[in-house]
Every structure is written in structure tokens, then in C-alpha cells.
Specification:
D-amino Acid Aminotransferase, Chain A, domain 2, 2 domains, nine-stranded antiparallel beta sheet, nine-stranded mixed beta sheet, 6 helices, 18 strands, 28% strand, binds pyridoxal-5'-phosphate
């Protein structure tokens, strides 16, 4: 594909074939050398544990081209550490941060021509994947694994500008159990969320919100984004044993503190939604998706957060601040960025 053919401004958040992906195989008790592939397919044994028993972990991070032409990968070490935590969670061998870095830098450099220009507001999305490939029929961890990172350019999340949208609480479904795999980035959690997610989208909502699975009283998170609320100069985000530790949330917490806000990480009862001045869903895809309102149809309630229907000042400031660091427009004082050279 020729670079001129890519319509950077209208890229969806979807898969586009790029030139290369990188792979590392785990065999005989150790990780091998980094391999470069231009094949989009993975030949796999039909008894591989990832296919039957969900031994599958993934990550998501982005590389951004700055005004200065430099390419920056955002919080690579945090993604490596979270993948290691997921590996411990579902008994897969950990890949060191060094090896993760080597693979991420390589895949970005090899696909340089797919990194969107600064002006487009688009970025290169990196999707690391670690799967059990060893054949097993009994329920046991595999003895062989494959780590892959592919890259694909993705468009700006807000095509028509940063906007507030409606969300819905689902009471019919849980994403993860309190002592389950909610804190790990595994495909199984997504499988568990598909029905609720479809129902939310069919109902005209941006995404579904889960309550804590045990008491159904506290805000947990969305299918793929953490929750935060803003009030009285305080950034409030749930403390829960079933949510995925979002790196975007962690970054926003730091920025909120830098801006002189207080931060509270604690259970958030659903009724407290009525008291927030602003709220957002946060994750790598959108950074912040401001929340216009959260409906709880099964309980006949609706919490309108953005009274004027627009993103609030704190969400807007946090959003622009984080994006500015990602694109290199503002100094990287917390060392969040890896420059690719
Ligand atoms: C990936 C993910 C997030 C967002 O995490 P980021 O590191 O901010 O991208 C939030 N919730 C769930 C369930 C996720 O899988």
C-alpha cells in the first residue's frame, strides 16, 4: 500500500494490514529470539490452550508522531508490567520488560510509514498478544507460548470533537467476579462482556457500566474503560478487586494531583453519581470519554452528569494535557514516553 492512499483523518479504530509484526516463541522453558514476520496469520495447533482454556493475554498502547517528527510510545514499561501481572494471573511465562521494549520498538520502526502525521490526531496502535500454543487436552497451562505485537494505524477517537455521551448500567450481567480475573487483561473478560456491550450499543449508549458483582451497589468499570468522577476539586475513582488497572487512569490521577486536585480511590456507591460535577470513562482508545449521563433502566433511575450536555472543564483540561504529553507538545516530566530512534 502506498502512503498516499491512507486517509489519515478518517481512519477508524479498526484493523489495517501493516508491513510487519514481531514474534517471540517460548519453547523448552525459555523465550527465544525476536522474529520479524510479514504474515498476518498464526499457524496454531487445534489443541492449543488459548483456544480452549482462555490462556490469552493482550495489551494496548500507542505510538504518536510529534510536531518535531519524533515518535513517542506512551507508558511502554507500564504495559509490560501489566502483561507480566496478567501472566502471573493465568499461569503463563512472563516476558521481561526489556524484551517487551525490544519488540515494541522494533514493530514501530518496521512500520514507520504507517505512523500517522502529527496533524491528523491519529496514532499507531500496538497490540501485544501472549497466547498458550502448546497442545493440551486436560485443563493445565501450556508448555509453549507465543508473544506477538502487531501495529495498526487508528484514527482519532473523537471524529466530531471531544464530546459527552450516555452510558448505561447493566444489572443483568457481571464482567468479572471479585476474586476472578477482572484485574488481568485476558480475553475471557471480554467474552463475558459481549452481550452486555451489544445491548448497551443497541440501546444507543456508548458502553455498559458494571456494578460490583457481589453487592451490586458500587460502580466498577465499563467493558473496556475505567470510571472516574470529579467533584469539589477531587478526582474519585473506584477501588475494586475486579477492575482492570487502567494506565490512562493512573496517568490522569497523576495529572490531577499535578493540577492541585485531591485524589480518592474508594468504593463509589451508585447513588453518588448524582453528586458528580463531571465524570468520564478512560482508556487508551479515547483517553477520556466524557459521560453525559448514566442510566440505570432496570432500577428506573438516570443520573445526568453533564447538565449542558458538554464535557466539563476538568475532563477537558486533563484530556488536552495527556494528549499534549503523548504528542510531545508538553514536557514529559514523569518519564512516561519512550522516544523511538
Ligand atoms: C484495557 C482496559 C482498560 C483501559 O486500560 P488502559 O491501560 O488505560 O488502556 C480499562 N478496562 C478494561 C476492562 C480494559 O481491558
Amino acid at each position: 500500500m502506498c502512503m498516499k492512499e491512507i486517509d489519515w483523518a478518517n481512519l477508524p479504530f479498526g484493523y489495517m494490514k501493516t508491513d510487519y509484526n514481531v514474534r517471540i516463541y517460548y519453547r523448552n522453558g525459555q523465550w527465544g529470539e525476536l522474529e520479524v514476520s510479514s504474515d498476518e496469520y498464526i499457524p496454531i495447533h487445534m489443541a492449543a490452550t488459548c483456544l480452549h482454556y482462555g490462556q490469552e493475554a493482550f495489551e494496548g498502547l500507542k505510538a504518536f508522531r510529534g510536531k518535531d517528527g519524533k515518535v513517542r510510545i506512551f507508558r511502554l514499561e507500564e504495559n509490560a508490567a501489566r502483561l507480566q501481572s496478567t501472566c502471573r494471573g493465568i499461569l503463563m511465562p512472563e516476558l521481561s520488560t526489556e524484551r517487551f521494549r525490544e519488540a515494541a520498538l522494533k514493530v514501530v520502526k518496521l512500520n514507520e510509514r504507517f505512523i500517522p502525521p502529527y496533524e491528523s490526531g491519529a496514532s499507531l496502535y500496538l497490540r501485544p498478544l501472549l497466547i498458550g500454543t502448546g497442545a493440551q487436552v486436560g485443563v493445565r497451562p501450556a508448555t509453549e507460548y507465543l508473544f506477538v505485537i502487531f501495529a495498526t494505524p487508528v484514527g482519532p477517537y473523537f471524529k466530531t470533537g471531544f464530546a459527552a455521551t450516555p452510558y448505561v448500567i447493566t444489572r443483568k450481567y457481571d464482567r468479572a467476579a471479585p476474586l476472578g480475573t477482572g484485574t488481568f487483561k485476558v480475553g475471557g473478560n471480554y467474552a463475558a462482556s459481549l452481550r452486555a456491550s451489544k445491548e448497551a450499543h443497541d440501546g444507543g449508549y456508548s458502553a455498559e457500566f458494571y456494578l460490583d458483582a457481589k453487592e451490586k451497589k458500587y460502580m466498577d468499570e465499563c467493558g473496556a474503560a475505567n470510571f472516574f468522577g470529579i467533584k469539589n476539586n477531587t478526582y474519585v475513582t473506584p477501588l475494586s478487586s475486579s477492575i482492570l488497572p487502567s494506565i490512562t487512569n493512573k496517568s490522569l490521577i497523576q495529572l490531577a494531583e499535578d493540577m492541585g486536585m485531591k485524589v480518592e480511590r474508594r468504593p463509589i456507591p451508585e447513588e453518588e453519581l448524582a453528586t458528580f460535577e463531571e465524570a468520564g470513562a478512560c482508556g487508551t482508545a479515547a483517553v477520556i470519554s466524557p459521560i453525559q449521563r448514566i442510566d440505570d433502566p432496570e432500577n428506573n433511575r438516570s443520573y445526568v452528569i453533564a447538565k449542558d450536555g458538554k464535557p466539563g472543564p476538568v475532563c477537558t483540561k486533563l484530556y488536552h494535557k495527556l494528549r499534549a504529553i503523548q504528542y510531545g507538545d508538553e514536557p514529559d516530566v514523569h518519564n512516561w514516553v519512550t522516544i523511538v530512534d
